[in-house]
Amino acid sequence: MLQAGSLLCFDKLVEEGTDPAYAEKTDSVRLGNHHRSTETGRITLMMDRLSNPAETACLCAF
To answer: What keywords does the record list, in alphabetical order (predicted)?
Structure first.
């Protein structure tokens, strides 16, 4: 789904006259930010499901 959205966004930017190299960089940054926020959200949700002692043990492991 992200890949399809990325292609549509790139095509739209180029269609509007944006330089293809700039459109590629813009889309790459946007996708990277989305990936990081999704990953962070998943980790937060997993940690929220742990009991306090288990969460402490997990944090101490790192």
So the answer is: Amino-acid biosynthesis, Branched-chain amino acid biosynthesis, Isomerase, Oxidoreductase, Repeat
Kindly list the distances between the CA atom of residue 6 and the CA atoms of 2, 26, 58, in Å, as whole numbers in the listed order.
Answer: 6, 10, 35
Which pair of structure tokens corresponds to residue 19? 């330089």
What are the residue boundaries of the structural domains of the chain, listed by start? 2-61
Q: Which of 36, 55, 37 is nearest to 46 (CA)?
A: 55
Burial 18-48 (b: 16+ CB within 10 A, else e): eeeeebeeebeeeeeeeeeeeeeeeeeeeee
